[in-house]
């Protein structure tokens, strides 16, 4: 038996790995500055939580949690396809704020700031996932599967097209690549996996509220992608482990509990800035953002 | 019977119209505050050409510094206000010197600078939480809340001061950008950095200047926000989005445009919550921002095409 503390950490590593890998596809491979990423995570978490609370089976919750954000990503990418750089970043950031405002204010659906408690853990094939070890195996399996799928995508011709778009969209276009479609697909795949991570988070914590999906929550994920290095999947795994474990010592040095949250953020922000200043390609990255 | 009906009707109209005036006033006040954020932001953006996300949080730092100087140290209010503006100017100077300048030296792209500014936003925000705590702060300088009645709507003296500050700032900035040497150099760098450098303007100096002036304006905004509303550590992101939305609506890179756009945003937002629950006030700004980004990314007052370049 793994102690529940380390089990919990490993589950969080799996969830963050899925998130970081999917942001990696949009930002690292395709160069899409998607600051609305947390919005997809939120939609996935709320969709699966609401379905699970109404007694739907886990596979159905997971599937919906993946597909609903994908649809939103399709709409968002269609709307923002022409925007680039700073403007795309701001528009997608606006998206995540709108989603946050909805989770906070649509009381009838989301119970607003009170959040949704009592989300059941999955149960299938006679396995009870209320046991943390079983849940860890499930989330680790999903994280590994995500890695393999994204690795497959990244090394496919489609993945090469994405990298071409990141490096020079005009050149990719002039070679006959449908860049708009490719960018849209990248965003949709990214949202698909973000939704899955949201579903795992909701059923792991058995409680979600809007604060988990504030813009600030993008920082650890973004830091992972930058530290691991753009377009580097093994780097992402390495960086995820570091970033999830990095603030853990804060728990043990006797900091007042009100300082732990800000302290963690401070650490992430400093780490992000230092990497940008001194190791801009991250630890395993091959490219720098244009 | 007719008479009673009519009087009810006119009563209703009167209430509606005074509500209208009240919302209009609230919109102007919000717009004035957004304009202060947007003009500083726009100043920095026009010369530096990247989104300085931490700008809103610099304004929040201004608010907390005022709280520190005035409420905790007990300084005279006007002295505290001047110290606040100087301090935020120094914060802007340091952010540029310690983070953006080394990044620029390494020829980092504007995307990298944008990620760095998101990092700085979180850094400044968590420092506020660590130094001042998470709870809401009020400063209590303006005791009297009695308003002056204008056509059925109430406006407090502070709100009048806020609007006047925005107008004065608008005049000052127009003068600064058009008449002073530094202002002209800023416009030159904003227009074409390489040509400006050829005629002997140091771009690096201008970047520093725009951070100092922009952050000083943010400090003024912080003071007015603190007097008008309450202080919370995380309000910076929201302010920044409002400022950015104002700047986009008015036409990014144009300081007068940013001010006009901000007033427009303030009004639309306040009239929006006439129909929607007030929690959606922030969402309204994003939706307007979104609409402008998609359909009129050049804003109302500029002709250059930037967003898809």
From TrEMBL, chain A:
Subcellular location: Cell membrane
Statement: the UniProt record of this protein carries the keyword Transmembrane helix: yes
Principal cellular location given in the protein's record: membrane
Keywords: Cell membrane, Membrane, Transmembrane, Transmembrane helix
Example GO molecular function: branched-chain amino acid transmembrane transporter activity
GO cellular component term of the entry, any: plasma membrane
Membrane topology: Multi-pass membrane protein
Residues spanning the membrane: 6-25, 32-51, 57-76, 88-107, 133-150, 185-207, 219-246, 266-284
InterPro entries reported in the protein's UniProt record: ABC_transp_permease, LivM-like
Record-given protein name: Branched-chain amino acid ABC transporter permease
Source taxonomy: Bacteria, Candidatus Berkelbacteria
């Amino acid at each position: 038996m793994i102690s529940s503390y380390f089990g919990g950490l490993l589950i969080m590593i799996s969830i963050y790995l899925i998130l970081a890998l999917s942001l990696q596809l949009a930002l690292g491979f395709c160069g899409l500055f998607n600051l609305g990423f947390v919005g997809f995570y939120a939609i996935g978490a709320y969709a699966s939580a609401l379905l699970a609370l109404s007694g739907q089976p886990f596979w159905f919750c997971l599937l919906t949690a993946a597909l609903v954000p994908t649809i939103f990503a399709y709409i968002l990418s269609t709307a923002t396809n022409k925007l680039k750089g700073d403007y795309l970043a701001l528009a997608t950031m606006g998206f995540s704020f709108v989603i946050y405002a909805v989770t906070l204010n649509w009381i009838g659906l989301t119970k607003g700031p009170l959040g949704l408690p009592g989300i059941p853990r999955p149960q299938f094939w006679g396995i009870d996932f209320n046991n943390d070890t079983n849940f860890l195996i499930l989330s680790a399996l999903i994280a590994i599967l995500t890695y393999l799928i994204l690795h497959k995508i990244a090394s496919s011709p489609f993945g090469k097209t994405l990298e071409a778009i990141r490096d020079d969209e005009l050149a990719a276009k002039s070679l006959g690549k449908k860049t708009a479609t490719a960018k849209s697909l990248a965003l949709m795949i990214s949202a698909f996996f973000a939704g899955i991570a949201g579903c795992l988070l909701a059923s792991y914590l058995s409680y979600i509220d809007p604060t988990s999906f504030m813009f600030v929550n993008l920082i650890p994920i973004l830091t992972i992608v930058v530290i691991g290095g753009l377009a580097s999947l093994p780097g992402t795994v390495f960086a995820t482990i570091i970033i999830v474990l990095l603030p853990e010592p804060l728990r043990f040095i006797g900091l007042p509990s009100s300082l732990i949250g800000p302290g963690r953020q401070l650490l992430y922000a400093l780490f992000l800035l230092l990497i940008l200043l001194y190791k801009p390609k991250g630890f395993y990255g091959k490219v720098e953002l244009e | 019977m007719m008479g009673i009906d009519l009087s009810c009707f006119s009563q209703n109209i009167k209430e509606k119209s005074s509500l209208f005036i009240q919302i209009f006033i609230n919109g102007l006040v919000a717009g004035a505050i957004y304009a202060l954020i947007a003009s500083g932001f726009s100043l920095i953006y026009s010369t530096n050409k990247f989104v300085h996300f931490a700008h809103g949080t610099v304004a929040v730092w201004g608010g907390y510094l005022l709280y520190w100087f005035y409420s905790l140290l007990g300084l005279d209010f006007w002295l505290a206000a001047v110290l606040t503006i100087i301090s935020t100017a120094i914060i802007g100077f340091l952010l540029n010197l310690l983070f953006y300048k080394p990044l620029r030296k390494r020829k980092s792209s504007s995307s990298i600078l944008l990620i760095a500014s998101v990092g700085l936003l979180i850094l400044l925000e968590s420092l506020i939480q660590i130094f001042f705590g998470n709870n809401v702060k009020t400063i209590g300088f303006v005791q009297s809340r009695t308003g002056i009645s204008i056509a059925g709507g109430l406006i407090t003296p502070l709100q009048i001061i806020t609007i006047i500050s925005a107008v004065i700032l608008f005049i000052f900035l127009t003068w600064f950008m058009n008449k002073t040497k530094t202002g002209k150099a800023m416009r030159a760098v904003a227009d074409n950095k390489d040509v400006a450098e050829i005629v002997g303007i140091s771009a690096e100096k201008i970047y520093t200047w725009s951070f100092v002036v922009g952050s000083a304006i943010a400090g003024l905004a912080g003071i007015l926000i603190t007097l008008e509303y309450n202080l919370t550590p995380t309000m910076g992101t929201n302010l920044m989005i409002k400022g950015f939305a104002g700047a986009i609506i008015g036409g990014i890179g144009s300081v007068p445009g940013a001010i006009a756009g901000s007033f427009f945003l303030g009004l639309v937002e306040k009239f929006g919550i006439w129909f929607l629950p007030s929690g959606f006030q922030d969402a309204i700004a994003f939706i307007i921002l979104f609409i402008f980004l998609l359909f009129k990314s050049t804003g109302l007052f500029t002709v250059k095409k930037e967003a898809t370049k």
